[in-house]
Amino acid sequence: MTSVRDPAPRASSYPETTPTIERLLARAPAWTLTGGYAAATGRLLLTFCAVVLAASMAPLGLTSTELRTVVIVVGVLLLAAAGSLLIHRVRRVRHAAGLAYPVLLLTALTAVGLCTENVSTAYVGLIPLCFVYTGIFHRGRDAAALLPLALGTYAAMVPFFDSRAGVRLVIYGIIWWAIAQTLALTTAYQRQVQRRLRRDARTDALTALGNRRDLEEHLSSVQAGDTLVVIDLDHFKSVNDTLGHSAGDAVLTGFGHLLDQHLRRRDYAARYGGEEFVLVLPRTEAVQAMTMLRALRKEWLEAGNGVTFSAGIATICPGVPPGTALAAADVALYRAKAAGRDRFRIATDHRGPSREAADALT
Question: Smallest Cα–Cα separation from 183: which of 232, 218, 133?
Fold first, then answer.
């Protein structure tokens, strides 16, 4: 379930075609979104149905007993909505618990149907809302689990259950299930497209590694004891000048593929820009990184493209920002290049703003 801490888009950023409900959620105070959009919409579902029940009491001409029943149901729905807000504030609730919203609403409608006469049919139109909610925020098969309760609710709301009511019950059940399935498929497709767009936005198209934006996000989660490596392909400009940019792209693609194949599953690689790459090696000492780079160099030379690479290595120290360690690794890289290229250097102590780190930043 989406966390309330996730920043919602600003209302002004939505195009005119954005659904009204999404605009309302975007303008809603932060506390109303506790638990995420699924929980907020569930509370909105209960509140909306409570308002409908309350607003229809007078026009329907309910008896005192029926009126008491509807008032109790309205109170239960509103208390459940408020209780959900408190529960989500206190503890994290599993996503599957969101089915409690339509289940509670159907149970409330069943109570109205059993305790009133000839008026509950006015509320049959509220049943499909449960399947709309389920289809948007849950899996398609969850609607099948909800269907028997919905059919029982409808049966309780019909004054006389004859053969015609039975036929309507079957038709309505199919329609409700179809609504949930359609919305579930649509939502799943949208999520798939969103994941693909997110992946494309954070992936370098040439090497299929992470790009600079993805690297910045990844660096925010590194810890002390992780090692950063900055790699630069030596004399890469001459490859583009003599063999053409297509040959240079082939070299970059080949090196990116080698990194992806050579690194451990927990390691991370990104194209930093041009012919530079950054590696994030969790729980790895600088000496271990050096050994890994030597093995990588051997495989790269066996590829026979004639391009070497240099690298700078820096291990993140406690209390040192990742950016400082990255700057230190960059300084170490330039030391390697100044020493003749095709070699690796470990950064000097960078627990504070050393001169090398400061020079790199300027």
Answer: 133
